[in-house]
Design goal:
Length: 83
């Protein structure tokens, strides 16, 4: 099990035990970012924002995840052979 897998498992456990604690969603998002699962990271950060809409740090990392997801999408789109 990689460090990222361990971090994701710990974050999911945290969320299960304390779903109202924003830090669990932050940790899950960070773990997903490290494995380049940007969609999953966006979802985790958004769940945290739903708990605390005014959290500037969570909003910042959410926007970073969105930007990385866009870059990843464009890179994949550009690498497809055109017909």
């Amino acid at each position: 099990m990689t460090e990222a897998d361990k971090a994701l498992h710990a974050a999911n456990t945290c969320i299960k035990l304390r779903p109202e604690w924003i830090k669990g969603y932050y940790r899950k998002g960070a773990a997903l970012m490290s494995v380049e699962d940007y969609k999953g990271a966006c979802d985790a950060f958004m769940a945290g924002l739903q708990l605390d809409p005014g959290n500037a740090e969570m909003e910042e990392v959410f926007m970073e995840a969105v930007e990385e997801m866009k870059k990843d999408h464009l890179a994949r789109k550009g690498s497809k052979p055109s017909d």
